[in-house]
Amino acid sequence: MSGSTHGTLFRVTTFGESHGIGLGVTIDGCPAGLDLDVEAIQREMARRRPGQSKIVTQRQEGDLVEILSGTFEGKTTGTPIGMVIYNQDQRSKDYSHIHDKYRPSHADYTFTAKYGHRDYRGGGRSSARETAARVAAGAVAQQLLASLGIKIRSYVDQVGAIQTGKDHGALDLSLIDSNDVRCPDPAAAAEMETKILEVRKAGDTIGGVVKCVISGVPAGWGEPVFDKLHADLGKAVLSINACKGFEYGSGFAGVSLRGSEHNDAFYTDEAGNTRTRTNRSGGIQGGISNGEDIYFRAAFKPVATIITDQESINESGERVTVTGKGRHDPCVLPRAVPIVDAMAALVLADHFLRSRNNRL
Amino acid sequence: MSGSTHGTLFRVTTFGESHGIGLGVTIDGCPAGLDLDVEAIQREMARRRPGQSKIVTQRQEGDLVEILSGTFEGKTTGTPIGMVIYNQDQRSKDYSHIHDKYRPSHADYTFTAKYGHRDYRGGGRSSARETAARVAAGAVAQQLLASLGIKIRSYVDQVGAIQTGKDHGALDLSLIDSNDVRCPDPAAAAEMETKILEVRKAGDTIGGVVKCVISGVPAGWGEPVFDKLHADLGKAVLSINACKGFEYGSGFAGVSLRGSEHNDAFYTDEAGNTRTRTNRSGGIQGGISNGEDIYFRAAFKPVATIITDQESINESGERVTVTGKGRHDPCVLPRAVPIVDAMAALVLADHFLRSRNNRL
Amino acid sequence: MSGSTHGTLFRVTTFGESHGIGLGVTIDGCPAGLDLDVEAIQREMARRRPGQSKIVTQRQEGDLVEILSGTFEGKTTGTPIGMVIYNQDQRSKDYSHIHDKYRPSHADYTFTAKYGHRDYRGGGRSSARETAARVAAGAVAQQLLASLGIKIRSYVDQVGAIQTGKDHGALDLSLIDSNDVRCPDPAAAAEMETKILEVRKAGDTIGGVVKCVISGVPAGWGEPVFDKLHADLGKAVLSINACKGFEYGSGFAGVSLRGSEHNDAFYTDEAGNTRTRTNRSGGIQGGISNGEDIYFRAAFKPVATIITDQESINESGERVTVTGKGRHDPCVLPRAVPIVDAMAALVLADHFLRSRNNRL
Amino acid sequence: MSGSTHGTLFRVTTFGESHGIGLGVTIDGCPAGLDLDVEAIQREMARRRPGQSKIVTQRQEGDLVEILSGTFEGKTTGTPIGMVIYNQDQRSKDYSHIHDKYRPSHADYTFTAKYGHRDYRGGGRSSARETAARVAAGAVAQQLLASLGIKIRSYVDQVGAIQTGKDHGALDLSLIDSNDVRCPDPAAAAEMETKILEVRKAGDTIGGVVKCVISGVPAGWGEPVFDKLHADLGKAVLSINACKGFEYGSGFAGVSLRGSEHNDAFYTDEAGNTRTRTNRSGGIQGGISNGEDIYFRAAFKPVATIITDQESINESGERVTVTGKGRHDPCVLPRAVPIVDAMAALVLADHFLRSRNNRL
Questions:
Q1: Cβ within 8 Å, pair D29-B125
Q2: Chains contacting D with at least 3 CB pairs below 8 Å?
Q3: Chain C contact probe: residue of B356, B357, B358 with most C CBs at under 10 A
Q4: Of B60, C160, D289, D334, which is least surrounded by CB within 10 A?
Q5: Is residue D348 included in any domain, yes or no?
Q6: Which ipTM was obtained for this model?
Q7: Which domain holds residue B139?
């Protein structure tokens, strides 16, 4: 298998390339009886769509999700939900000038090394276009989780060196979609937007960090050994194009603390719930949710496609120049937000179903 | 399932608790014909063992691996390799003073929330004791990889705020085991050791960072979508006890770079191999190895067990004081090194087997 | 998950209901570099299609397979092959007369018991319509196997009490598609056809047996324990609608033999190959192919839909009469042949890929 | 992987060979809170044990199951249950006279073809010794199912040509263990025993049929497509050594019936339950249980080891004579009964856990 299936019980399988006929995704394992809001799926697609604002790529892509199966009279039936998204434009163009060149820090070379040949018309299966299918599936998972009172909210925490510098508790997360950057700190958002436009003007790109906050997960989800909840979140998020790092709770900064500073003390709140006074654990202890907010951060590198000549080689190993053109993202962060939401939702939906067999 | 299986083709299933009769691991999928060096497995166990130096826990644990199946006349047979490790001492002690208390930042509460009850004699399945089985399996994977010319070398890059501050290329990795810290920078190692002893004297603990460098992986391993090579490495490493973050290649630091600074230019070396001039990609592009060294860093929090009174609650939600005692690690980093080696080996062995079906 | 994925390495996931928008299938794991003949896929679809002859249902169904991904310039790329088959006619009809009735020996009641509600417009996911997706995937697997010299040939061995009464070696298997029944024994085929037409006239249905012969599989495919080659074939074939039994090699008849009569003696043939003088083992010993022809038989019950009034109950448990109407198969056997071919191909393609990791 | 894992949620992984140090099994996925009766596991082992009566092999085997993990204070903890069974006698003997010979209808040749070499001291991994681990795991599954009111009762229905000739409803299944054959029809049992002793005296072996009856399974277990309940039962049973065929409900005999004769009419019983008047469906419709008794039959060939000289070849392809010796089973049926029970239990335990996610 090529690793195109995610999850064990809420099992999502995708197919599709950037320049093929279309993409698709099958969700096998969504329980029967969920009210499915098709509009809400399409709304998540719009958050990922190119051309949605002036700080993302102006490329046009079809993003209409067609549901072929798995629902009846507005509810999930328990059988696989099949969805397809046709690519808008597969006209054959002239790719002769680039078809045997390896674009730096793209997957052109590694695909050729792996498969012996590749679809040279674009990233093919390694294109971020593939994430459209993830977002469609994630939108279904988000509805499943919403029915349980769970909310997943990702936002842009950093662009280049510009950070919100604030803990998520100090931000109003309802503001995430109030600006094009998807940063709930309006002042930082404005700075970030300026930076992105400046980078774009230079034909260059820049990276950043997405933070995700998940509330409403009850204690007891996740597994104690290999499938720890944060390990599954880490894998899911690291599998997003351009993601280079993942940390949850205190993360890399926590390594400098002492145990006596780091530990989260338990207490019983007025409602009788078990809580912790601090949350350096990031809502997960021993791989299992403890009922506190789950939060993590994901690092995204600058997009590899730049509008500058770059040294490279072709498939014969000869030196060539790769010349950037086309309409690419100066900064992937605003569009990465709904993808992080989607991946977090897929992981949590899976662990929700698994948790139902914790006990007899 | 409780998530105790790792891998798809090199499939490792573990069992066992800290205070039960014993641990075990089954490797299903190791191809026939590998010369298996049993001593080498035991040597890796010794690197993880408690009591190996004065900066780790002085607790005694049995760590003798017994191989029950899957080898014949010194070679793997292709059938499952079953290994058991008996616990040395399961005498029943008096646990009444702690059996219903939730130790801060341990998995006591989350286990109870998940399973309804738990083994109160220690961490049970969430104890780091469980990683003994991983190291045994990882040692087999390392032998498989060594037969292909692959070397995995992890080391301690940071303890608390003390860092080597050097790139792995600037260090002599043959020095890793030359000191108790497992840091190949002798000056930094000495500082780290002093810090660990100081922290231990205070009854406290401290975190750090392990770096792992993998050489010899050919181009073409890894999958393009969910099972990207770095995503699988990330999950595997994040599943180790106390791990809070993972980054590969340029990682979190890379987000501030521009694409033009971050991209790795391709060239053809004198031997005719495709290479990159820099390696911010960390040896992986589009989730697939490109033949350069693979490297990543993993953050470990300070151990939760400290020798200080801590506020907590018991299973009835009543306020209690948790008093630390026993012989615990002041810093988990030196013993985390072989576990990171093991998990990296499990991931790579799996992707090696998968890569054999890349093409017809 | 709802069990809509088949295989471990050649991994096939299907979706779709009989009265929904369409069906689909994703093949994840087909290696790169296979020349894919799209016409050949469509030819297998035609062998399964309703309306192909006067002894099958005259219902019309769309069966055009559209390939959305996974191929480029006529070859498989190694990434998932996504295929969709739109249903021709999803006009809403009036189902009020049957929508809450449980048709005898259909899955109406068990679906309701499982999922709480069901798509009452037909069999939904339990309809044999679902097998269209299997045949499309199986046709790809057959091409993979054909490139290795493997041939899968199923045929109708029995309809009601009418049997060929001949061993497959005594039949000319090139005649399978020479008659509507798909029985390579012309005399038996004529009798079977007469019987099917007689049964149909009576508004009734009849069962039968499909036999499958697979040649060209080298020794060494299959696994020794749970995933024995014949066990996987058995599961795959038993998962076809209406299949009630599976036997391979000597099967049920072999139980009356003595070991001295049943054992297959080994010898070395003139070409130096290891062979057996008889083949009661059915080409599989200890779950692993031995290089002889693999053969098995599958029993199919009479189709449950009959044109006769039947006693039943409705969802409220009240007694009702179910009146048959519509255009259904009097005998599923001729159309089951390509489905058995497809399932056998899926199993073998999977074990081919697995066998590549038998040895280092 | 070598296919040594069974199940998706109640996941059982085995290891071990006939002449190695020992066998083992890990159950990952047994929910927390099951009262585990260790004696009952050992009782099932005794039903499979060699030497239990005069009609089975008189070979001695260790069959003591040691539970290493996964239980605490008499209850399952939700973490993996690890069990080992040491082989009693691994003294090195002289195997030089057979070590390169292929025993007819054994797995000697196919193992060599697959793995390149094999453990020549016996069947190795293909030995029926491996089923000891299955019985241990199945005994845990049976306890899980018993807590839900489910009973699995297999018995010998046929030995050679001697059949009970009775439907299971006409037999008193409490008599299964009242004789050495495990046939609840005392008259048939006596005849069978005489036949087995006669065959044994002749140094030969004979096959037979096991029937299994499962009561108490509620409607709604099983999956509609590939993982149909009977398909999973079929695979599990076909994976038992020497099994050549599987049929459920009306099976092969049902193919000659007409639909009007075969269909099971629904009715509502006095207690208000949905029932069927007949049960040719074998308790499963569309792959999903309907609440009636589930029943199936499994064909076992005569054991391949006979005390007679047989023609064969050695690893060099030279003609040799294989001379039988040792203490082998004249008829595997009495000992197959607990193994069929075990495999049926593993399948049902898995589908029980899966069924808990049928609906939201």
A1: no
A2: A, B, C
A3: B357
A4: B60
A5: yes
A6: 0.97
A7: 5-355
